[in-house]
Amino acid sequence: YSDFLQKYLLDYSIDLEASQIRLNKYLVNHVIKQAGLPSIPSIELTDLKDYDVKKIDIEKIGFPLLIKPSENTAANADIKIVDDQCELECHIRHIMGSNNAYYSDQKINKIIIQKYLSHQRFKEFAFDFMSYSGSHCCIGILEYLKNHAAILEGAYPRVVGEVTEIISVIGYVRRCLDALDVKYGFTHVEVFWDAENKEYYLIEVNNRYAGIPATPCYKESYPTGPLKQYFEFISSEGVTMEPYDRIGYSIVVLLYNFYVDFPKKLNLDGLHSTVGYKIYRAHTQKKLSKDFYQDNDLSSRVGAVIVLNSMNEKWLKEDYAILREREENGGLFV
């Protein structure tokens, strides 16, 4: 591959200024809005005094509001939904200048305040794109699975034909990538989508390919891996190849421990599916309260993350339901 890499991958420069903008959620949203694309109403604060200046504009957005750091967020850390002015002001004072819950060596010096889009209307999807010379190809689609309280419980790889009208969302993401001046490499993009009303809004853009555990899911679901796809994409001079086909079924499962302090293991007995990936954290955790999600910070609450793989979609869904039932009745963490 050395000649190929030399010809196609080493002969271009990366626009660092455009790349830096994509690290800030507010700036991303601002660029999308300026391009005339659907965007979530948003305001950024850079210090406590900034709130006094922008207070009226924030009120115009309307409650409920979602507050999170503008930069360096992961795993739903430092996210808060507020329902009134008092709660808003208290949380701004609490979060501004505090330590980042996920990146503990960093301070939160910028926050973004956005209109809260209800999970009852909007589903959340992640799209993985590769780009070359300004052409963008979608190579992975993840549907996030959430419960009644909007708690993330899993993620399921999709192909185009399984989700009605998803091509329109892929087109929207492409236009967002154009507006953000993405030219090369991989991009992981999260979107809120209300299929019934045909509304979609970009959440954030990450200058990378999907991480763990999405990547093992893609491997079990799609015929071709990302590096080979990238070479094929470059060779075809930007011809798009959306994920139309699958070779199997895979699902990311996030599991929460409500019953046992410091459990030693996870009960995965009797499943049809194979476990392709597992992170176990519950052995260092006390059990959770059933209303733990009320503080909206889930960064350290997941007891285990696993990936289930199967050639049979029915079996995969049955196994997912079994794990959720064990989680609910106390038979999962033992």
Instruction: Report the C-alpha radius of gyration, rounded.
Output: 21 Å
Number of helix segments? 9
Task: List SSEs in N-to-C order.
Answer: HHHEHEEHEEEEHEEHHEEEH
Q: What gap, in angstroms, lies between the N and C termini? A: 49 Å
Largest sheet: 8 strands, antiparallel
Overall body shape? globular
Instruction: Classify the secondary structure makeup into a structural class.
Output: alpha+beta
Q: What percent of the residues sit in helical stretches (DSSP H or I)?
A: 25-40%
SS strand fraction: 25-35%
Spans of at least 5 consecutive residues whose pLDDT stays below 50 are none
- Average pLDDT confidence is 88
**Number of β-strand runs:** 12
- Largest sheet, spatial ordering of strands: 9-8-5-6-7-10-12-11
Concise overview:
The chain has 9 helices and 12 strands. With 334 residues, the chain is α+β, with helices and mostly antiparallel strands. The strands form 2 sheets. Strands 9-8-5-6-7-10-12-11 form an 8-stranded antiparallel β-sheet, with helices on both faces.
What does this structure look like?
The structure is a single chain. With 334 residues, the protein is of the alpha+beta class. It is built from nine helices and twelve strands. The protein has helices at residues 2-8, 16-21, 25-34, 48-61, 85-95, 166-179, 214-221, 226-235, 313-329, and strands at 42-45, 65-69, 80-82, 111-115, 123-132, 135-146, 152-158, 185-194, 199-206, 249-255, 274-280, 304-310. An eight-stranded antiparallel β-sheet has the order 9-8-5-6-7-10-12-11, with helices on both faces. A four-stranded antiparallel β-sheet has the order 1-4-2-3, with helices on both faces. It is globular and about 60 Å long. The protein starts with a helix and ends in a 5-residue tail after the last helix. 30% of the residues are buried.
